[in-house]
Amino acid sequence: ADVDFSGVVDVTDVVSMIDYFLGKGGGFTGIQFLVADTFLDNLINVVDIVRAINIILGRCIGIIECAADSSGASAPGLTASRQADEGVSDRDLDILLQSNAGLNSTQNRNTLNVVADIPPDVVGLQIGIEYDPSRVRVSGARLLLEDDGLELAQNIGPSGATFMIYSPTSASLPADTKSVIALDLESELDGIEPSATDFQVTEVLGVDATGMPVYPEDINPILAVEELLGTPQLLPSQKLQLDRRGNSDGVYNLGDLLSLIHRAGLFPGNAAQEAPR
């Protein structure tokens, strides 16, 4: 994560990684990208940024390192995925878009709330959306969470936007179902108010206190097979999720389907496990 090669991972490196995420600055060289990609998935996202923050704070990252860390003061609690496995929580990460048009409230009617169902121990969240620029566009975004320790990074483009919620101290987001971001909308069509149906969620990714990804509930393998055979069944965010948990080559394909089948325990003698990173 030492992207400026100063010999130490510090706030400057985290800021550089966030700027890369936002499309600011001159980008990274090939070597800088490799250094920043701490999860080794050929992407720079909220997982890598949380891992860099953990390094600065002297905390462990990854399943293996955190399992071996016996310093109780710095070792985080159960990860969100382990909590679900051990019955501590049955909450799955999920995102929905809720329009405020027509609501009897003091909110601007031309706003859209991003509502998140957040499991315990999630310290970062990344959300992507797409929209038709001939109908509507996002003009701005505001963080709705009351915790002053949380930050919102936003990369808003003409036909899509990506948002990242994170804590400079790796503090957990509230384990609850609540509105996390308010999107300010502008309609490109006279007399027509924007609504949630004008938008599509393309990405949902969380990260826990150990720097491990937290995904939405896994996809039904039958639907994944039908999608691969040519019958559209999956949302873009679901195909992206399958690729990230599969071969991470940028497209949903057979390798990702086989990984899903393996996780579902449908291969005889195979446990539903993912390789630790």
What does this protein structure show overall?
By secondary structure, the protein is an alpha+beta fold. 26% of the residues lie in helices and 24% in strands. It is built from 8 helices and 9 strands. It has helices at residues 11-22, 30-36, 46-57, 63-68, 80-85, 221-228, 236-245, 254-263; strands at 94-99, 111-117, 122-131, 136-143, 151-156, 160-166, 177-187, 199-208, 213-214. A 5-stranded antiparallel sheet has the order 5-6-3-8-9. A hairpin with a 4-residue loop joins strand 8 and strand 9 (213-214). Helix 1 (11-22) packs antiparallel against helix 3 (46-57). The longest helix has 12 residues, at 11-22. The chain is globular, with a radius of gyration of 19 Å. Residues 72-89 and 103-107 have low confidence and may be disordered.
Describe the structure concisely for a colleague:
With 277 residues, the protein is an alpha+beta fold.
Strand order of the largest sheet: 5-6-3-8-9
From the N-terminal CA to the C-terminal CA, the straight-line distance is: 15 Å
Number of helices: 8
β-strand percent reads: 15-25%
Helix content: 25-40%
Following the backbone from N to C, one meets helices and strands in this order, namely: HHHHHEEEEEEEEEHHH
Please identify the structural class as seen in this structure: alpha+beta
Shape: globular
Radius of gyration: 19 Å
Characterize the biggest β-sheet: 5 strands, antiparallel
Integer average pLDDT: 81
Q: pLDDT below 50 for ≥5 consecutive residues: which ranges?
A: 72-89, 103-107
What is the strand tally?
A: 9
